[in-house]
Amino acid sequence: MDDNMKKIPFDINYLLKNFPTPFYVYDERGILNSLKKLQNSFNWCDFKEYFAVKATPTPYILRILGENGAGTDCSSMAELILSEKSGINGEDILFTSNNTPIEEYKKAYDLGAIINFDDTDHIKKFLNKIGKPDIASIRYTPKNAYGTEVIGNPKNSKFGMPYKKVLEGYKIMIDSGIKRVGFHAMLVSNTLSTDIITRNTQIIFEAVKNISEKLNIEFEFIDIGGGFGIPYKPEEKELDINLLSKNIKDLYNYYFNDFKPKLYTENGRYITGPHGYLITKVLHIKSSYKMYVGVDANMANLMRPAIYGAYHHITVLNKSGEYETYDVVGSLCENNDKFAINRKLPKIEEEDILIIHDVGAHGHSMGFNYNGKLKSAEFVYDGEKFKMIRRAETLDDYFSTIIF
Amino acid sequence: MDDNMKKIPFDINYLLKNFPTPFYVYDERGILNSLKKLQNSFNWCDFKEYFAVKATPTPYILRILGENGAGTDCSSMAELILSEKSGINGEDILFTSNNTPIEEYKKAYDLGAIINFDDTDHIKKFLNKIGKPDIASIRYTPKNAYGTEVIGNPKNSKFGMPYKKVLEGYKIMIDSGIKRVGFHAMLVSNTLSTDIITRNTQIIFEAVKNISEKLNIEFEFIDIGGGFGIPYKPEEKELDINLLSKNIKDLYNYYFNDFKPKLYTENGRYITGPHGYLITKVLHIKSSYKMYVGVDANMANLMRPAIYGAYHHITVLNKSGEYETYDVVGSLCENNDKFAINRKLPKIEEEDILIIHDVGAHGHSMGFNYNGKLKSAEFVYDGEKFKMIRRAETLDDYFSTIIF
Fold first, then answer.
1. Residue in A116, A119, A205, A215 with CA at minimum distance from that of residue A171
2. Where do runs of H (alpha helix) occur along A11-75?
3. 3-state SS assignment for residue B84
4. Does the distance separating the beta carbons of B118 and A372 come in below 8 Å?
5. Is A45 marked active-site?
């Protein structure tokens, strides 16, 4: 392992001096670079990335993404309002939800969002109770897909519909007079394989082509979903985005001659994942059956290692080398509240600062308040200075819904 | 399966008419009956139950438990303050934490709580920075325990200490002049086997006996932990609490002749688990590769099925029989947001009310706000009327920490 891997692109002394740990820091330049890399790779078509809000539902980040050409992929009332408050409106919002309450569809409609339907009955309800959306799509779930270890077998997916129902759905949409239609599928999660994404894209393009011919319609866009992975472990290699784009371009040219659909993605992790850092202080070192490093962060700040066994790289500020094997743990009263198990790290002392890497997506946003734990503040570094973009939760926040 | 199983002990029409679903309802009489059952079983000794606050951190419930002879088992600042605000103070609080910040020890000390140490270094720090606690104990983690499938092998536990360190810890405590000492271990979770708890209790008693003889001290109490299970599935049988108590009494009489320690437990689930109900409305029924029942609750209200694959019984209000096989799902944008998979239920229609059972512990308290989802209100039924004891979260709560 290279000690220089996973350096942080700023000096956090200012934050450490002025704010209590734990806290999150995001690298604005890194986030925008990832967005640009994705956009540049797909510049051979009319491309748009709709950022998955759930990954990092923080308006500052949504706003800078929006200013740089991204839209938002929303799936709840809160996310729709967050987008709106971040200055993202209209068809820059894609609303993909399942089992959706009618008032959320209404809000999406009022914002002028692209409506992505999860069921034929939803289309009927929408037309009946709200009206005719200007542009809409349907979520397709094929019988099989590739590389679905993380996201699960499509046949067990609560999302989307099989081919026959999708076809039926588009008929309903066309009959109702909806003129502009798109197509949607989301088949993998966090994959580093261009091959897997390419093969799934082919499944999607094939379905689009078939439905287009059967119903004699031109699709305005195809949303091939998200799930582009990032390397969490030192030995993993980045997704080859240029190769992926080339593969998809070949497929695109093969399938689409009559009409040229726009191409959309809805990545979250790929854009922000590598550019978020959880900064936490060592409170205690314990020798039991193993060596434990106890830090002041816990599952309230980051749940991924506990619930998925996810690997997050950890470095120790101003220390290098590998000297000891530790479990790095939080103080939550659950034995799975561990950020790393049997991890080799430089010899750690109390008050050391640990940096937990690649937490820019599905990190802070997944935290809970179990055991009365509180979520941390979030900062962004814009290349010149740090800005607080979310304050830390307080005990008063935690108590606020209780009727004493 | 008996259709009459898992009835709800109140009429929820009043709540359904006046409050939006989803919401939680707790049965006050059921909770107090469970507490009394536990207390009565152990009435042969000086027994006290310290309720694990994390299970149901709601002051109304803590208060009624406190009024009926229970204390609280706390492990964070928030839980200490919740106890205090619920009228529970002094040695009615047991503070068991790991990797503990000094300010949390200080708060526990100021409240007069029993301090349960997780490491020898914590004892030294406490004595050095805070002072001498009136009464304290040490958390023991033996090399092996029985029935640790849920809680994990003790050798991988971040909690407590091996025998040698425990011994060293008591020496430090005695040398410092702490006169009143207890003993603590927590070795299983959610077990229905009297045998498993008995055998683990023997491990604990054996250690107490040995340390008592080695150091010539009398232990004032032994906390044998929690983990008494409840039947989640229709075919499971209740823990035989009277048999368990008899077994433990035999052990107690065998091991303790010179001194008679008080006996403490720190159950959460056993007390409140069966007496909480999550009430949710069917929003949508979808036929895809399977039949999906979409409800208005999701992982924000109850995470156990999604993260543990936990079984929770579901009944349909005013319907019986088994007619269809469904996945019961929430609308969170994660495919594991499912309350039940392949569950046989009466034929369900939109607007039906589902009751998710046995959610009185580790239910509401574990919820998160991922995807912008909001936690629900909590009510209690006191035998005569319903009282709201926690209001539902609002979007303003969700937005409250954001710096726009």
1. A215
2. 13-18, 28-41, 59-67
3. helix
4. no
5. no
Q: What is the pLDDT of residues B236-265, one digit of tens each?
A: 999 999 999 999 999 999 999 989 999 999
Question: A392 by DSSP, 3-state: which?
Answer: coil
Separation of alpha carbons A272 and A24, rounded Å: 13
CA A60/CA A388 separation, integer angstroms: 10
Residues A190, B291: Cα–Cα separation, whole Å? 27
pLDDT tens across A254-270, in order? 999 989 999 999 999 99
Say how far apart CA B277 and CA B56 lie, in whole Å.
13
CATH number of A28-272: 3.20.20.10
Q: Give which of A26, A286, A396 to mutate to test B binding, by max B Cβ within 10 Å.
A: A286
Superfamily classification of domain B28-271: Alanine racemase (3.20.20.10)
Of B390, B372, B378, B287, whose CA–CA distance to B331 is shortest?
B372
**CB contact (8 A) between residue B403 and residue A389:** yes
Residue among A82, A155, A289 whose CB faces B372 most closely:
A82
Q: Compare CB distances from A370 to B333, B366, B373 and report the shortest one's residue.
A: B366
Please tell me the predicted confidence (pLDDT) of residue B5.
66
Question: What residue segments make up the domains of chain A, in order of their start?
Answer: 13-25+274-399, 28-272
The torsion angles phi and psi of B55, rounded to 5 degrees, stand at: -65, -45
Q: Which fold has domain B13-25+273-399?
A: Lyase, Ornithine Decarboxylase; Chain A, domain 1 (2.40.37)
Q: Provide the token pair at B332.
A: 């969170």
**ipTM here:** 0.96
Q: What is the amino acid identity at position B396? A: D
How is domain A13-25+274-399 classified at the CATH fold level? Lyase, Ornithine Decarboxylase; Chain A, domain 1 (2.40.37)
Residue partners of B48: CB distance under 8 A and separation at least 6 = B69, B70, B71, B262, B263, B264, B265
Phi/psi at A6 (nearest 5 deg)?
60, 45
At B227, the amino acid letter reads: G
Give me the residue from A100, A289, A404 closest to B85, CB to CB.
Answer: A404
Q: Which of B284, B290, B333, B385 is catalytic?
A: B333
Termini Cα distance of chain A: 53
Cα A376 to its chain centre, rounded Å, is 19
Q: Alpha helices of B86-144 — where are they, by DSSP H?
A: 102-110, 120-129
What are A366's two structure tokens?
Answer: 């997944």
- CB contacts < 8 Å between A and B, how many? 236
β-pairing verdict for A262-265 and A291-295? unpaired
